[in-house]
Amino acid sequence: MSDPWQDYRKRRRRLLWVALAGLGALGLSLLPARARHSAKPVLAGFVLFLGGTLWAARALSAFPCPHCGKPFTQDETTRDGFAAACVHCGRPKWS
User: Fold this and answer.
1) What does the domain layout of the chain look like in residue ranges?
2) Nearby residues of 7 by Cβ (< 8 Å), 6 or more positions away
3) Which of 81, 84, 31 has the alpha carbon at shortest distance from 54?
4) I need a labelling partner for 23 at 20 to 30 A (CA). Which of 12, 51, 74, 88 fits?
């Protein structure tokens, strides 16, 4: 049986890398924006950053609890990305 927390680690690393790559794209978009005196490249960089980061954050927040199978960090009223335990069954993180 594989470790279910390995998937959580993978999703967390993906969020970090997508956010960093998006910030890089945003920074690189400033170069043509200054040369052309246009905000369109910056807008495109921002859309890439925001869209990628939201996609990866959604994947992380949808991680299913290994015990109850429900999303570990969110329920109908709560989204706690720093939850130390499942918001549904109370199982501690990493156990």
Assistant:
1) 4-61, 64-95
2) 63
3) 81
4) 74
